[in-house]
Write a structure and sequence with these properties.
Two copies of one chain form a homodimer.
Chain A (H helix, E strand, L loop, with lengths): L1 E5 H12 L13 E7 L2 E7 L3 E8 L8 E4 L1 E6 H10 L4 E6 L4 E6 L2 E6 L17 E5 H11 L14 E7 L2 E7 L3 E8 L4 H4 L3 E6 H10 L6 E6 L3 E6 L2 E6 L18 E6 H15 L7 E6 L2 E8 L3 E6 L4 E4 L2 E5 L1 H11 L3 E6 L6 E5 L6 E5 L6
Antiparallel strand pairs in A: 1-5, 1-7, 2-3, 2-6, 3-4, 4-17, 7-8, 8-9, 10-15, 11-12, 11-14, 12-13, 13-26, 15-16, 16-17, 18-22, 18-24, 19-20, 19-23, 20-21, 24-25, 25-26
Helix pairs in contact in A: 1-2, 3-5, 6-7
Subunit structure (chains A, B): Forms a ring-shaped head-to-tail homodimer around DNA.
InterPro entries (chains A, B): DNA_clamp_sf, DNA_polIII_beta, DNA_polIII_beta_C, DNA_polIII_beta_cen, DNA_polIII_beta_N
Pfam family, one (chains A, B): DNA_pol3_beta
């Protein structure tokens, strides 16, 4: 194998693939990056066996300045190879496999020779039937990911809760995550062929995979293709394939958790409320119980936090409107901060049923497309 | 004590003082910041007992929007207080000491009440005789600090080597640091009164103190005043006092370490050489012995590094001129990188005497004002 390429073009793709590579893997060859040179271009592959990423650098794209003198394949230690490429002196670089998988990387007068591994030993990626695919709008799907992963569990005690449950049916995609203290659910419409609209998919994708996927998705891409098999999902853009394993098991029925009654409803500017919660949480973080107290009355909404060792904070929060009964309750401010940040700058409604039952946050412009739920903390 | 102030003005000064505050101190009150309000303004003090910083916010500077309603003093937990001030909702804030050192911090409708400590319990700062002072040019002195601290030792086995030896005599300031493997020395001229020029100062200031000092020095200030007592040094700009303890003991005589003969001299562009060393060190870092090899011949200068597990790198380095004998030697590339970065973008000369004796780096434009020395590593 021997090729010459523009260093920056190569580095961008290397960075994409590197997201899948973990230095903590127990399979030594997976600390490496697989490079295949064929007549169409270069294929780079990285994997931690949960996530695999394959990036393609086409020879026909002139800006890559890619020339392949000899086809072939090699696996090179990823972290190290990346550092070398980043530090090379010239705009272009040449990679050549020599005897016994030794690989030379040259640029101007600098010449590295590093030990490679036979690419035949690299694990095969899952084969996914490309017939069963549908398109997702990139920007909207990134939003779905960022808005739901916050509520996924980070504890392995119930592995299924570390994933996002994605249900596709009736020409819409529903994503939901819960760590059993809070929940985030988002729905987006999909455009599908009549045939696709007939089918239903229900999968649980590790939140970690989706977080990495969101990072690799360029905003320039308009749509991404999604394909599902029994235990794998593949997301595909023009030159990037992103594989993730699926979580096994049944995702809990979250629908019954969302209250359908409202005793009290308050409309806030999400950003203003976030500022108040951040201040209150400064003190709650110092205490044993990380809770802040919200006190809702028709004429006055108050947030307070306290820590016996440090002191207390109290603030009157500006709100847009309030309907229903007065209510006092306590909650974990970190859940509230995550939820409010996911809304960004918009008006929201917070709907309470009772001090001990979950309350929900929804966009003030109603609709069911985005719901966040938080369970209060009993303090009495 | 009660005052109102523009939050951003307060935060800037708070950040300066916070540099001196360590959360790892064994003296609880030193995790706090002392605030004194008097008729002239606010004085903030932070200290970790090695370094103490005092910042003054004058009432007469209108941009501070400082109003003092009641004079007084308090000590508040620094990290926490800083976070509160940063998160307050409005442009101005009010601090008021209530009963039993409880202190309220209010801004718009947000109101914090935190536990303070009696300011009388705060340790006193050293008293330094301000008569014996002289002026240092700020920009040049920052350069001196940044160019010498790199060679100071970070090991406490010989505490004196963790400091910078500063010698002021004959209207010049000499700063030198060495960890016994390398050395960095810088000399700058001082403008002094005839009376000052008579005196000699020879002190060892902890490198850590000087690093913090360099960070607090604003480039807008032209000169800084330096005052020395038996065991303390004070650096003083208009509204900032920076105290550091001095290291006790005799600094070794470094003059005899600097070779006065040259067998081989090579002129490089410092930046180009740095690039080559960085590449070579990628491989040396992987090996047990972190060394790279330099091979100097009249027609060719080569740098190489290798690690049996990973591979090797070899590079021909561009140089401007070379005089003297051919020489091969090995050294720690990290020392070389630090040294070259301290020169920045300029032409330098590297002067060798023998493969086992220290070599030096100086600006190509000669002069003795800046010398860096590195001891080679014996590899045979």
């Amino acid at each position: 194998m021997k090729f010459t390429i523009k260093r920056t073009a190569f580095l961008n793709r290397l960075a994409d693939v590197q997201r899948a590579i973990s230095s903590r893997t127990t399979i030594p060859i997976l600390t490496g990056i697989k490079i295949i040179a064929d007549r169409d271009g270069l294929t780079l592959t990285g994997s931690d066996s949960d996530i695999s990423i394959e990036a393609f650098i086409p020879i026909e794209e002139e800006s890559n300045q890619l020339e392949i003198e000899e086809t072939g394949a090699i696996v090179l230690q990823a972290r190290f190879f990346n550092e070398i490429v980043r530090k090379l002196p010239e705009e272009t670089m040449t990679v050549e496999v020599l005897d016994r998988f030794q690989t030379s990387i040259t640029s101007a007068s600098a010449s590295f020779t590093i030990n490679g591994i036979d690419a035949n030993n690299y694990p095969h990626l899952p084969v996914i039937d490309e017939n069963e695919s549908f398109h997702l709008p990139v920007n909207l799907f990134k939003q779905v990911i960022n808005q739901t992963v916050i509520a996924a569990s980070s504890h392995e005690s119930r592995p299924i809760l570390t994933g996002i449950n994605i249900v596709i049916e009736n020409e819409q995609l529903l994503a939901v995550a819960t760590d059993s203290h809070r929940l985030s659910q988002r729905v987006i419409p999909l455009s599908m062929t009549p045939e696709q609209a007939q089918k239903t998919y229900n999968v649980v994708i590790p939140a970690k995979s989706l977080i990495e996927l969101a990072k690799t998705l360029e905003d320039t891409a308009e749509t991404i293709e999604m394909m599902v098999t029994e235990n794998q999902v593949l997301f595909k853009t023009e030159n990037l394939y992103f594989y993730s394993r699926l979580l096994e098991g049944r995702y809990p029925d979250t629908n019954r958790l969302i209250p359908d009654q409202t005793a009290t409803s308050v409309e806030f500017d999400a950003h203003t409320l976030l500022g108040s919660i951040e201040r209150a949480s400064l003190l709650s973080h110092e205490g044993k119980n990380n809770v802040v107290k919200l006190s809702v009355n028709p004429d006055r909404i108050k947030i307070s936090g306290n820590s016996p060792e440090v002191g207390n904070v109290e603030e009157e929060v500006a709100f847009k409107s309030m309907t229903g009964e007065s209510i006092d309750l306590s909650f974990n401010p970190d859940y509230m901060k995550d939820a409010l940040r996911a809304f960004g700058q918009m008006d929201i409604k917070v709907k309470f049923t009772s001090p001990v039952r979950p309350f929900i946050l929804v966009p003030a412009a109603e609709g069911k497309e985005f719901i966040q739920l938080i369970t209060p903390v009993r303090t009495f």
